[in-house]
Amino acid sequence: MKTVILEEQEKVEEIISRSDVCFVGMVDLQNNPYVIPMNFGYKDGVIYLHSGPTGSCIDILNHNNNVCITFSIDHKLVFQHPSVACSYRMKSKSVICRGNVNFIEDLEEKRKVLDVIMAHYSNKTFEYSEPAIKNVKIWEIPISVISAREYGVPHKK
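-> structure tokens emitted (157 positions)
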């Protein structure tokens, strides 16, 4: 089985749109990897996330705002020969993005971003109270580097 590089923008965006969570990687204050699953929104080459206003992630990002974000879909165990362990592989599609987190503080911009995030999960229209808007930390990550792969693709015979 082989790995195929996906270069078409529509295939990349399909993987992102079909993902229900993303995994956000950063480097903690002790220089160790730190990865968390998060809900997200995506629009026009920008990934949006939200969190509480304080905590480990915010401390980390205030020190180093570089992140790596991974999306993955269509997981299925496949094999070329049922008796050969090394022929087994997890078939999947993934996107890896890199960028720098900017925090959005403007209340109206926060509302717009929350609408982008919620649109990823629902077609409903939502309202946000002012205390809730003030208490949420909005992450904006313009994608600077992106790559996509499909794994476990059978070789042509």
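Residues 2-153 form a domain with the Pnp Oxidase; Chain A fold (CATH 2.30.110.10).
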